[in-house]
Design a protein that fits this description.
Blueprint (H helix, E strand, L loop, with lengths): L6 H10 L5 H4 L3 E7 L2 E7 L8 H12 L5 E2 L6 E2 L7 H5 L4 E5 L2 E7 L9 E5 L9 H13 L4 E3 L16 E5 L4 H4 L2 E4 L9 E5 L5 E6 L2 H16 L16 H4 L12 E10 L2 E10 L27 H4 L2 E4 L2 H9 L3 H15 L6 H15 L1
Helix pairs in contact: 5-7
The chain binds zinc ion (ZN).
Length: 372
């Protein structure tokens, strides 16, 4: 009989070998703060440099060109891509081989953990991020392999994805985030999936939550949401999928036949007592002259707090803020609660359906589309 993998022992060994930089992580300044959206967590990251969307794009370009210019902080190995695993990573005990979706993947614990047991799962093959049916299936495989861990994927488009769009990967770990605890604001019906419990999460970003025990039905419902969202336009609130009319009938984002232009999803999955909770944050990376880093991105007036892409960790309510915020707080006399409130404004910027009257009406229009 195959013994279950001892995740705890692997985590302990990763810390003991110094792969997880506990001393660096301990330098981070972390606090929890109450906001109108619930209690959220703030981390001023003193262990890792900030990246803006332009430098992320430059990193991806170097990786695509195969330049081995990245020094892995855990092992000291030189890599073309921060997530390309080698036999040496497995050999030294940094990476652990796993299988997701019938394919070889690996998992290691993040050197710069943002929360307890912060792990990264990556495909063995170097290939781009993709949000589709296969990605949802792999998330379910991942939570099955590591009981007690959530797994999520960054979105697969620039500006709304995290860093490293060029290598397919998930983040996971033993942490429960504010968004995952947030209640539902209203129920949602998804055509063909009346048996799947679905709702809108009361959260600054626009998140559809699917709940149930039946994996296949949840994957089906997630694909239905993805397919509807990736071709959805609403000029009244600035949502522009960039996908021309008619394409939607022939192509589906869930099976990879649709090339996503602006709209995609950040999915996060957890399971407790056999009940899955799959949160789908709707994302749109459209830009305009006023917002060159994204219309649904921290607006300029908030860049003193956050300029980086909003990846899945922040979507869920854990702010990873750059070191400069420490100085900004002193200069502007900002309290820790102030910073929490400003961070939630950043998430409101990233939400495609705002919580004002126009945004709520726009949300209803999209939900009608899901029900059709
Ligand atoms: Zn790679």
């Amino acid at each position: 009989m195959k013994m279950p993998f001892d995740t705890q022992a692997f985590y302990q060994a990763s810390c003991e070998h110094g792969f997880v930089k506990l001393a660096d992580v301990a330098r981070n300044i972390c606090w929890e703060t109450q906001t109108e959206w619930g209690s959220v967590e703030i981390t001023i990251n003193l262990s890792k440099p900030e990246k803006d969307p332009r430098s992320i794009a430059a990193d991806d370009k170097r990786a695509a060109a195969g330049e081995a210019s990245y020094v892995d902080p855990a092992t000291g190995f030189l890599r073309a891509c921060p997530l390309c695993v080698t036999e040496a990573d497995v050999g030294c005990g940094y990476a652990h081989r796993i299988e997701l979706g019938g394919e070889p993947w690996a998992l290691w614990f993040s050197p710069y953990a943002y929360y307890s047991e912060h792990c990264i799962a990556m495909t063995w093959e170097h290939r781009p991020m993709h949000i589709d049916r296969a990605a949802f299936e792999c998330l379910f495989d991942a939570v099955g392999l590591f009981p007690g861990y959530f797994f999520g994927s960054n979105a697969d488009l620039p500006l709304v994805g995290g860093s490293i769009l060029g290598h397919d990967h998930f983040q996971g770990g033993g942490h429960m985030f504010a968004m995952q605890k947030a209640p539902l604001f209203r129920d949602v019906k998804i055509r063909g999936f009346a048996d799947v419990e679905a709702g809108i999460v009361k959260w600054p970003m626009s998140v559809i939550r699917l709940v149930g025990r039946d994996r296949a039905r949840l994957v089906g419902a997630a694909c239905a949401v993805l397919d509807a969202w990736c071709v959805y336009d609403d000029p009244l609130v600035g949502i522009d999928s960039g996908v021309t009319g008619g394409t939607s009938r022939r192509c589906r984002a869930s099976d990879g036949t649709l090339v996503k232009v602006h709209n995609t999803i950040t999915p996060i999955l957890r399971v407790e007592d056999g009940i899955f909770q799959l949160d789908l944050a709707l994302r749109c990376n459209i830009t305009d002259e006023q917002h060159p880093l994204g219309v649904f991105h921290a607006h300029e007036g908030l860049h003193h707090i956050k300029k980086e892409n909003i990846g899945l960790i922040e979507v869920m309510g854990l702010a990873i803020l750059p070191p400069r915020v420490q100085r900004t707080m002193e200069e502007r006399g900002l309290s820790r609660d102030d910073v929490g409130a400003l961070f939630m404004q950043v998430l409101e910027c990233a939400g495609v359906f705002k919580w004002d009257d126009a945004g709520r009406a726009a949300l209803e229009r999209f939900l009608e589309r899901l029900e059709q």
